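Entry for FE2/S2 (inorganic) cluster complex. Fields follow.
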Amino acid sequence: MMPQSSRASKIGLLTVASRAGIDREIAKYPPDQKQAAVMAALRIAQEQNGGWLSVELIEAVAEYLEMPAIAAHEVATFYSMYDLKPVGRHKVCVCTNISCLLNGSSRIMEHLQKKLGVQPGETTAGGKFTLKEVECLGACGGAPMMMVDKTYYENLTPEKVDEILESLD
Ligand code: FES
């Protein structure tokens, strides 16, 4: 029996489209291993919610996957791809892992902090950008790199960063 069974169901917090997306992820695993879809399911729930996960939404995902809510919380808090508070319209995620670090990610991050006037983890006053420091995004050959929303930008320079930011609504 699910631990949430004594409380009101939260599954209704997931939209029909989100549930359909999660179902497609679940179908990739054996029927008794629904929980294996937790990372994808959290990503889908986060997208539904304007880029961040509320506690209730995490619980809805856990309930949908028939897993303990605490386990879904652990995944959501461990990985930097998830945000647990409201974010800006664009997430600027700067990789600071080893290849990017050796190729100047500190300079890129400093430039962004100065330009946006925020520290990593913060959102600009108008709600346009959230700046994040993230682990390796698997594009080490293009270091230093950042991901803005779902797009990768590689071989960054401060000038290139300016161009990218200016191109966003
Ligand atoms: S170290 Fe930056 S993408 Fe891998």
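NOTE: Residues 90-166 form a domain with the Glutaredoxin fold (CATH 3.40.30.10).
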